[in-house]
Amino acid sequence: SMFVDEARLAGRVRHPNVVSVTDVVSAPGELLLVMDYVPSESISRLVHRLRQRGKQVPVHVAVGILVGTLEGLHGAHETLSDNGRELGLVHRDVSPQNILVGEDGLARVVDFGIAMAHDRVQVTATGQLKGKLEYMPREQLYKQAVDRRADVYAASVVLWELLTLRPLFRADHPNDLVKLVAQGALDAPSHFRPDIPPELDEVVMRGLSLDASDRFQSAREMAEALEQVTGVVPPREIQRWLQEVAGSALGRRAARVAQIEAYDIEADSWQPQSAAVGVLLNQAEQASRGAGTLDYAAERLSPQALTRVQAPELGLTSAPESPRGTLTT
Prior knowledge:
Layout: H1 2-10, E1 21-27, E2 30-35, E3 40-42, H2 43-53, H3 59-77, E4 99-102, E5 107-109, H4 138-141, H5 148-164, H6 174-183, H7 198-207, H8 219-230, H9 235-261, E6 263-264, E7 269-270, H10 274-291, H11 303-306
Antiparallel strand pairs: 1-2, 3-4, 4-5, 6-7
Helix pairs in contact: 3-5, 3-8, 7-8, 9-10
């Protein structure tokens, strides 16, 4: 019921900075949520790569990504019901894993699995806390009423971490983590990165205010405040940066998608262009090695291990069957 409810809510959101839900497919024993495919990389993976390389995100790029994220959240917050009433939609799980940076330079919010709305059909059980502790505002942590300002807070945590490439709150035990979150952010981003201007510090720390009334009252308000600091960041600037950080991984993924699309289900055979796709896969892999790219272990696997079905003409063998209901990519 919660799954269908997610689709019902997310399907209402139509915004360039939100990944669209297009359909819900019911199969025996399972449900499939169909979303737009976005050639992209999550902030969490980008941060992982940058940490390994010892590089920082350019300040204007980090701000540009978060402005897009905030615009997407604002679009979700403003979503109306059939009768024209504001849904009161709150994502409640804004985090680096749920923000994608697209090849087109646009940031997109994904996954409304625990979103809250006024007319939500399925509600979480009493006393159940859902979300990631590190990105929860104090009111959500204490199971109090939350509104759009909770997403503003979470987006501010993401921006703080994108600028510093370090977790805002870190603890070995959940109880200790809760105490840190309840205490609030102590250091501005410039404490760890001197090139961050005071004006940007001010915006980030306001978004991290413990009291919701002290934060920006909407995601758009914060987005506008960020643009006053750095100006409007063109998507092409984010595009260039994304290619530098994750270009080889994106290239390999595009080749795998093309390989999958080359398979004719009705004919149960591979189309001629699949051989060319194999060349793309090899080229992308070689480019990755040549650039010394630090990728996830899964992305360093051979094409055989990355697709469930392979083209016979490529000389590749079938990979082991993946768990039911999943697609290995």
